[in-house]
Design goal:
- It is a single chain.
- By secondary structure, the chain is of the alpha+beta class.
- The protein folds into four domains: 88 residues, Uridine Diphospho-n-acetylenolpyruvylglucosamine Reductase, domain 2, CATH 3.30.43.10; 116 residues, Uridine Diphospho-n-acetylenolpyruvylglucosamine Reductase, domain 3; 108 residues, Alpha-Beta Plaits; 86 residues, Alpha-Beta Plaits (2-Layer Sandwich), CATH 3.30.70.2740.
- 35% of the residues lie in helices and 20% in strands.
- The protein is built from 15 helices and 16 strands.
- The strands form three sheets. It has a seven-stranded antiparallel β-sheet, with helices on both faces. Strands 5-6-9-7-8 form a five-stranded antiparallel β-sheet. The chain has a four-stranded mixed β-sheet with strand order 1-2-4-3, sandwiched between helices.
Length: 460
């Protein structure tokens, strides 16, 4: 607290909670990437929109960079503070502010965990459908900042589709009320959508109005074993033709091996190269359609085995095989690619990408999994214990450039749902044209004229 800048912040906001303990700096100064040494100036924990606004105005006056912080579950370095920035954590702003039964919206502070927002919706007999494994620790503000997707995008879409309105503190310290929960509004540019997926580079999301929907019907889960990578899209097409899907996820035998080592139960007596977990309505017609699709896939040589959950406990066990992958890989310090292409382009992209990685990574274990139903693949390269971290990352970055070129040819994105941050910034060119990037820079200059908001992330 002896830093003169912090003294001025304390003088401007005597009630603001500030942390400077080294353990707190290390905890709040990084995300799940673990590739940068955290070195923030301090951690600010505002308790209101007014305090956030005051912190941003102070940062502009003092020339201090800000790093907005949610649950810090990101995988792209977007919440890293490694250069003396002030981390602005919204964890104290975690309340439900209101529920509208007519509009079916839930207004929350941005620091509320996703799971808490889901539970609040359920308490009113409704459903907030964005969902993924980090639901207990990630926050709504972080979900919005990265336009998080998850396991049910094939049915419900991404976070962007469920944000009716935002309260947003811009990089210059203005408070904007965006969207206003209107269903129809043709009054010009929708600035709400600029805030979504902006990764804290334009301002800080402080409140959100979430759209809610009817709870889904009871669902059932089926796990399929597949003989080849090429069968994935054909199995997806076979199931989608016959019934509406809530989710359609895949993973490899290598991914399964790590999840089983982490405590999950083996689904079959034998190992298979690839697996799909799919979820659908638990009514008689849907289950009959799913079984018919499975039988057709077996007959066509696209599936080798399968199991359908007999109860909720078995369904949870099957889902654990997919949702437990990221946690099971964490100790191996993986280098992560999070890419997407159009579903129609997936077969050709899969073939080219698989050949590329097999050729370029003969010495590394590569774990594939992802949301095949919406064209999103997660590729994790595991660091050998003996390999130096810097050498491992350099080799992976070399191959990521080649993968980016493949994505560009297939019209894909280098970041499907984790954001660009620091990790993927060198490859933004494969997703956005020079003209688009120039316009993005202009937008940032308009909303963050002094460049205090999360500098170095997304754009240089």
């Amino acid at each position: 607290m002896t830093d003169a800048r912090l003294a001025s912040l304390r003088a401007a906001l005597p009630g603001l909670r500030l942390l400077t303990d080294p353990a707190d700096l290390a905890h709040y100064g990084r995300d799940w990437t673990r590739r940068w040494t955290p070195a923030p100036l301090a951690i600010a924990l505002p308790g209101s929109v007014e305090e956030v606004q005051a912190v941003v105005r102070w940062a502009n006056a003092e020339g201090v960079a800000l790093v907005p912080s949610g649950g810090r579950t990101g995988l792209s370095g977007g919440a890293v503070a490694a250069n003396g920035e002030l981390v602005v954590s919204l964890e104290r702003m975690h309340q439900v502010l209101g529920f509208d039964p007519v509009d079916r919206t839930l207004t929350v502070q941005a620091g509320i965990p996703l799971q808490a927002a889901q539970e609040a919706a359920r308490a009113h007999g409704l459903y907030y459908p964005v969902d993924f494994a980090a639901r207990g620790s990630c926050t709504i503000g972080g979900n919005i900042a990265t336009n998080a997707g998850g396991i049910r995008v094939v049915r419900y879409g991404t976070t962007r589709d469920w944000i009716a309105g935002l309260t947003f503190v811009t990089g210059s310290g203005e408070v904007l009320r965006l969207g206003r929960a209107l269903v129809k509004d043709s009054s010009g540019y929708d600035l709400r959508h600029l805030a979504i997926a902006s990764e804290g580079t334009l301002g800080i999301v402080v409140e959100a109005v979430l759209r809610l929907t009817d709870p889904p019907p009871p669902t059932n889960v089926m796990l399929l074993a597949l003989p080849s990578f090429e069968a994935l899209m054909q199995v997806f097409a076979a199931f989608r033709r016959r019934l509406p899907l809530q989710a359609f996820e895949f993973f490899t035998d290598i991914a399964l091996k790590h999840v089983l080592a982490h405590g999950a139960q083996a689904p079959f007596d034998e190992l298979h190269p690839f697996y799909v977990v799919t979820e659908f309505a638990a009514d008689e017609a849907s289950e009959a359609a799913a079984l018919a699709a499975f039988e057709q896939c077996v007959q066509d040589g696209l599936a080798s085995d399968g199991v359908i959950a007999a109860n909720e406990a078995q369904a949870a066990q099957l889902w654990r095989l997919r949702e437990g992958i990221t946690e099971s890989l964490a100790k191996h310090v993986p280098y992560k690619n999070d890419v997407s292409v159009r579903i129609a382009a997936m077969p050709a992209f899969l073939a080219e990408a698989q050949a590329l990685l097999a050729r370029e990574y003969p010495q590394f274990e590569v774990v594939w999994f992802g949301h095949i139903g919406d064209g999103n693949l997660h590729i994790n390269i595991l660091k050998p214990e003996a390999a130096a971290q810097a050498d491992f990352v350099a080799d992976c970055e070399r191959v990521t450039k080649l993968l980016a070129e493949v994505l560009q040819r297939h019209g894909g994105s280098i970041s499907a749902e984790h954001g660009i941050g620091l990790v993927k910034k060198p490859y933004l060119w494969c997703t956005r044209s020079p003209a688009e990037i120039a316009l993005m820079r202009g937008i940032k200059a308009a909303l963050d004229p002094n460049g205090v908001m999360n500098p170095g992330k997304l754009l240089d």
